[in-house]
Amino acid sequence: MQKQLKAPANAPGDRKPPAEVRTKVEEIIEDVRTNGDDAVRRYSALFDKWDRPSYRLSADEIESIVSSLPQQVLDDIVQVQASVRNFAELQLESLREFEAETMPGVFLGQKNLPIRAVGTYIPGGRYPLLASAHMTTLTAKVAGVERVIACTPPIDGQIPAATVAAMHLAGADEIHIVGGVQAIAAMAVGTESIPKVDLIAGPGNAYVAEAKRQLFGEVGIDLFAGPTEVLIVADETATPATIAVDLVSQAEHGPDSPAILITTDEEIGREAIRLVEAILVDLPTRDFAAPAWADHGQVILVDDLDEAYRLADEFASEHVQIFTREPRRALEAMRDYGALFLGEETCVSYGDKVIGTNHTLPTRGAARYTGGLWVGKFIKTVTYQEIRDLSSSAKLGELCGRAARVERFEGHARSGDLRAARYGGADLSWAAGIFDVSALGNGVRA
Fold first, then answer.
1. What H or E segment, with its residue span, contains residue 201?
2. What's the pLDDT band for 217 if we cut at 50, 70, 90?
3. Which of 77, 84, 137, 387 is the most exposed place for a label (fewest CB within 10 A)?
4. Residue 87 Cα to chain centre, angstroms
């Protein structure tokens, strides 16, 4: 049985962006495709009030920008990136190449090849989002990506120095101060000054997300991401103040960010609601957090933790925090989430900013079918085949002929027939008058 202690004022919005967003994004993409840098410059001036001879930062500019920052800021960036790098390297080690002999002389294998060129987008808006540089650019470089083009918009008409430092220290090969749909389109189609890439990664506003959606297929993308989400599962051992602070910490991402508590204890639920309201009173980011809590915040009372975990899986939230007596039980009980945070000792903010796991995660129920951004996203796992035993090729040829003809693919069947005849002496009547099978040789390698 479930009881709503706090219901959201608004139902979840339509997943499809408004028609005006789709139309405007399509218009900008086509303009950039047709007019290249001229279009990028026009939209940068229009939307960001930003123009300069080249949007790409030179090596000297980057050096000057990085050196302008306090040493503590640089030290912190280095420390955080060390954590992200370490986790990405552990992920990379888990990707195994192999080659196996599956039947006599038949060798099948897989290789992991980094994508050649990746574009990373680090959003700006009101605040510099350094962590997005760590999660995208650094992870791509750990994967072995040869060329990473990083774009970020100006903030209030200024180059965001800390973001540039994070991009540079993460290993970006080029840094361009350009944002919005024009940046995504330029990286996807290529312009005179911004090279075309093969995959684009990084979060952004509704226009950036729609640009990635429209360009998907022409380039790869990391994943479709929506408003940040947090869900907390709590039992009677949880601390209401910790719950409240952590709900607010994610609500401040934006006015459409859901913050949800599922609890087995009514007193804890009601106290958490009271504390959230108190925290919001003088929170500097209340313009975002307060409407997020009012419109999308929920507190749900359930009978037991089994029901709590089932309900949490139905939400399939981006971030799920487990504040229970035995938090690791969630590892077995749950399967639909972007990332789990086990116990009150950790929090989503650690995942967002410092701990090392990737914070680019699925939202709006996408956790039912995908995980988040990881080093493997920047790697293509490809296969290869080799046959060294002629009799095995002949047997496979006969099987291929039969299997293909069931599907009425005669060309495929004849490709198999040829090898069955060449290496096993099978009949090849359809080749009569076309070519001499005996002239093909037996295929023995020199």
1. strand 199-201
2. very high
3. 387
4. 16
DSSP string, 306-372: HHHHHHHHHHT-SEEEEESSSGGGHHHH----SEEEESTT--HHHHHHTSSS------TTGGGT---
pTM of the model: 0.92
Q: What is the pLDDT of residue 13?
A: 59
Given a cut of 50, whether residue 446 has pLDDT beyond it is no
Q: Judge whether residue 226 has pLDDT over 90.
A: no
As a whole-number percent, the residues of the chain with pLDDT over 90 amount to 91
Is 5 within 8 Å of 299 (Cβ atoms)? yes
**pLDDT, the chain, mean:** 95
User: Is residue 348 within 8 Å of residue 357, measured between CB atoms?
Assistant: no
Please count the residues of the chain: 446
Of the candidates 318, 359, 407, 412, the residue annotated as catalytic is: 318
Provide the pLDDT for residue 154.
95
Mean pLDDT across 146-175:
97
Number of Cβ within a 10 Å radius of residue 277 = 15
Is there a catalytic annotation at residue 319? yes
| Chain mean position to CA 235 | 32
**Percentage of residues in the chain with pLDDT exceeding 70?**
98
Going by pLDDT thresholds of 50, 70 and 90, the confidence category of residue 403 is: very high
Whether 19-95+113-222 shares its CATH topology with 227-369 is answered yes
Q: Which helix (H) or strand (E) holds 107?
A: strand 106-114
The token pair at 40 is 């990028």
**Where do the structural domains in the chain lie, given as residue ranges?**
19-95+113-222, 227-369, 389-440
Catalytic residue, from 176, 296, 319, 359: name it. 319
- Answer CATH for 19-95+113-222 from 3.20.20.10, 3.40.50.300, 3.20.20.70, 3.40.50.1980: 3.40.50.1980
- What lies within 8 Å, CB to CB, of 82 at 6+ separation is none
Give the Cα separation of 330 and 348 in Å (integer): 16
Quote the CA–CA distance of 282 and 230 in Å, as a whole number.
22
